[in-house]
Predict the structure.
Amino acid sequence: MKLRLAGCALAVAALLAGCQSDTTGTAVRSPDSPTEPTIATPRPSRTPSPTAAPPRTVTPAPSGTSAPPQAAEVLSPQNGYVFIETKSGKTRCQLSATEVGCEAQFTNAPEVDGLPANGVRLTPDGQTEWVVGNLGDIPAVTLDYRRYAAVGWTIDASADGTRITNDRTRHGMVVAVEGVQTF
């Protein structure tokens, strides 16, 4: 009986040890390396599937000047995420309903744990956080200079930067390698 109890206690301890989610340490990255991990992932298709909903038109919030609303191309999510890359290839982002994360080699980024930040995270309520990380080999859709809609966000891509606005709260950011402006 004691042997059986000891075996059960050992099994429970092993299970609990495997359920920990805390990883201590400092993030390490290669300085300014454009090399990405090589995990084969297919690029998403821009061709709508036969069961896809028709594209929706995103109407911007009223402003001092009135301009005709511009139709937005809807980018379909994969597992709740949309992955984009700017036309220049200098900025990549992942969008979900709960946040947007973008990475670039920013020219004047703050330091995070002694390293220059290469990413910024934005929530729908306008909270931003600079981060150090790597989005990896994401299946990004390369944007042309126009308007897109994805998982509750409107994306306005231009040569001056990529403006990402939450459709519900109207909070957002403009991302360019020169910096990030939030609103």
Summary: The longest helix spans residues 2-18. DSSP finds one helix and 14 strands in the chain. Residues 71-183 form one domain. Helices lie at 2-18.
